[in-house]
Specification:
This protein has eight helices and five strands. By secondary structure, the chain is α/β, with parallel strands linked by helices.
């Protein structure tokens, strides 16, 4: 899951969540189990849906990417929220901050940056094995 965190989103408890039509969501939909859909009837920015922290906790994502809009994205209020603390990604230390420009850009260069940064976090065993094979050649049995 990719969410945006800002002081305003925390104040109103509505967090922008990347969907299958967003820049990142459209890529991850092809490579992972990425269930975040945006209904056609929902208003708002393209590629995003807005969820409360309680709704995010119901989904309980395994990995959480946070796109922050300020240096203090994870304000103390969020860190102590019981819904935040219940998230599987928080409990397992699988919360990663990503650069804010990802939501505004597009194109092959940006996709490459996203994949280079995210795939090792999503599939650490596969990526490290592939990198090892690329560097050392295939193993011989």
């Amino acid at each position: 899951m990719m969410i945006g965190v800002s002081p305003i989103s925390q104040l109103v408890d509505r967090y922008p969540v990347e969907t299958q039509t967003g820049n990142l969501g459209s890529v991850l939909t092809q490579l992972t189990e990425f269930p975040w859909q945006k209904s056609h009837w929902q208003k708002g920015e393209a590629g995003l849906t807005y969820l409360s922290l309680q709704e995010i906790a119901k989904a309980d994502p395994a990995i959480l990417f946070i796109q922050s809009y300020s240096q203090d994205a994870l304000l103390p209020k969020l860190k102590i929220d019981p819904n935040w603390q219940r998230l599987r990604a928080v409990r397992t230390g699988s919360v990663y901050e990503v650069e804010p420009y990802w939501h505004w850009g597009n194109g092959t260069h940006l996709i490459r940056l996203m994949l280079d940064r995210l795939l090792p976090l999503i599939y650490p065993e596969r990526i490290s094995a592939a990198a090892s094979t690329a560097m050392n050649g295939p193993s011989r049995a």
